[in-house]
Design brief:
Elements (H helix, E strand, L loop, with lengths): L5 H11 L3 E3 L38 H13 L3 E5 L2 H13 L5 E5 L4 H10 L2 E5 L3 E2 L4 E2 L4 H10 L5 E5 L6 E2 L2 H10 L3 E5 L23 E4 L1 H4 L7 E5 L6 H11 L6 H37 L5 E2 L9 E2 L3 E5 L7 H12 L1 E3 L1 E2 L3 E5 L6 H17 L10 H8 L9 H6 L2 E5 L13 E2 L15 H13 L3 E2 L6 E5 L3
Helix pairs in contact: 2-9, 3-4, 3-8, 5-6, 9-11
Protein name: Arginine decarboxylase
Enzyme class: lyase
InterPro entries: Orn/Lys/Arg_deCO2ase_major_dom (IPR000310), Orn_Lys_Arg_decarboxylase-I (IPR052357), Prn/Lys/Arg_de-COase_C (IPR008286), Prn/Lys/Arg_de-COase_C_sf (IPR036633), PyrdxlP-dep_Trfase (IPR015424), PyrdxlP-dep_Trfase_major (IPR015421)
Length: 479
């Protein structure tokens, strides 16, 4: 009998096509695993039998592995997460804040931060990032904005920032840590895209080195680890570790994956012992790619030079394509269906590639040749991408919060067409995905500018979570 297995069948089709993945997970379809480590992956899918320890009450090999990770990443305590960084974000918020308390949050946060505050009844105070017109992307949360936010919110428990952001741009965390400390507040960092930073001095320093009290790292994004594998690091007496353990015990599955945990152990060991050399080789390959692309004037690559004084992660490739007259969405589709190259994400002006120690020189050569060929095939006038959505969110203030996150969640709702939503109150989060940064959060008023920008983004081919197949969104129904 032939079984119908649509997910399995599509995965097998993708693998069989021999794609070039410039997307997560960081092991790049197994290339990042040394031969023999995960050859028996099905047999490794085990449970808490004698000598394999227990994630929720570790006193054996899991405790030893977590202690080794803490040493490698410069933390006092490290916890393995098998439910992804989302679980860790929710645990951090709950460990810092009680219901009704306030938390400063970068507006460029992942939607998991919004959901976590909604779950625990935490009141957000948002800080807008700066904005770069050339690439049309959010950049950094400035220390000055952080200081101003603390001055306005003496009652807040702390601040939660995303660093690096999806584009590899790093805020001045050392200065922000000093400011948070001067106010006696907790600094938590969503470092989901920065698990590799610790292992080469050519990269920005990681959160644990710069004064963060607690941080999350998605090992599966930039290290050779399986999806949902993340680390939660603590390096401060400001964090109640026992409370954090209890919360993780409530949020994480009672059947943790030994496949995921073993990959977290493997990633730490690999990077601790070989990470510096592996990253040096990766950076050399990326430098070759950037220098080669410079010869093609139609492309710009985000770098330290293009960002001025901002620190950027040199392993994150952000390629602006506007000068060839295409949107990032269009270039992503051309790469996927004409060249069998899949990037991590695209936006109106850029494609974003996640490069890791699992990538080889020939991967960058293949990407370069594809982009060079696309440039010769396309004859269009240069155009400026519609970046109003991103600019609005960064530069023109946070939408009006009409009702709290919790009240929005519990309110009655109705669905309306996006074009008629101006002036209404969002029931849920409206989030271009990727990167997963909310444009409108629950309880906020939807402005006409936002409606127009979302409509333009959809027309260009963008994907927006919170907008249905027929362009309908859920709003609060006061009737």
């Amino acid at each position: 009998m032939e079984y119908k297995t649509p997910v399995l069948e599509e995965i097998e089709r993708y693998i069989s096509s021999n794609p070039l993945p410039f997307h997560m997970p960081g092991h790049k379809m197994g290339k990042g695993f040394k031969k023999g480590y995960f050859d028996r992956i099905a047999a490794m899918d085990l449970t808490e039998i004698p000598r394999l320890d227990n994630l929720h009450y570790p006193d054996g090999v899991i405790k030893e592995a977590q202690d080794l990770a803490a040493r490698a990443f410069g933390a006092e305590h490290t916890f393995f997460l098998v439910n992804g960084s989302t679980c860790g974000i929710h645990a951090i918020i709950k460990s810092i804040c009680k219901p009704g308390e306030k938390l400063l949050v970068g507006r460029d946060c992942h939607k998991s931060v919004i959901n976590g505050m909604m779950l625990w009844g935490v009141e957000p105070y948002y800080i807008n990032p700066d904005f770069d017109v050339g690439f049309g992307i959010p950049t950094v949360i400035s220390p000055q904005k952080v200081r101003e936010a603390f001055e306005k919110n003496h009652d807040c428990k702390g601040i939660l920032l995303t660093r690096p952001n999806y584009y590899g741009i790093c805020s001045d965390l050392e200065s922000i840590a000093s400011i948070a400390s001067s106010y006696g507040k907790i600094l938590a960092v969503d470092e989901a895209h920065g698990a590799h930073l610790k292992f080469n001095n050519a990269l920005p320093k990681c959160a644990m080195e710069l004064g963060a009290d607690v941080c999350i790292q998605s090992a599966h994004k930039t290290l050779p680890a399986f999806t949902q594998g993340s680390y939660l690091h603590v390096k401060s007496g400001k964090i109640d570790v026992e409370r954090l353990k209890s919360i993780l015990g409530m949020l994480q599955t009672t059947s943790p994956s030994y496949v995921v945990m073993s990959s977290l152990d493997y990633s730490r060991a690999l990077m601790e012992n070989e990470g510096e050399d592996l990253l040096e080789s990766l950076i050399k390959n990326i430098d070759w790619f950037i220098n080669s692309l410079k010869a093609i004037n139609e492309f710009s690559v985000l770098s330290v030079n293009s960002m001025g004084n901002f620190l950027t992660d040199r392993t994150r490739l952000v390629i602006n394509v506007n000068r060839i007259g295409l949107t990032g969405f269009e270039v992503e589709r051309i790469l996927r269906f004409d060249y069998n190259i899949q990037v991590e994400m695209s936006d109106p002006g850029n494609i974003v590639c996640i490069a890791t120690v699992s990538d080889a020189r020939e991967d960058f050569e293949r990407l370069f040749l594809a982009l060079a060929d696309i440039r010769t095939r396309v004859v269009k006038e240069e155009k400026t991408a519609d970046i109003n959505l991103y600019k609005y969110n960064c530069s023109m203030g946070v939408p009006e919060q009409v009702v709290s996150l919790g009240d929005a969640f519990n309110s009655r709702s109705k669905k309306v067409q996006l074009q008629y939503a101006a002036g209404m109150i969002a029931k849920g989060t409206i989030t271009p995905y990727p990167p997963g940064i909310p444009v409108v959060c629950p309880g906020e008023r939807i402005s006409k500018d936002i409606v127009d920008s979302l409509s333009a983004l959809l027309k260009q081919g963008g994907n927006v979570n919170g907008i249905g197949k027929h362009d309908e969104i859920e709003v609060i129904d006061y009737l």
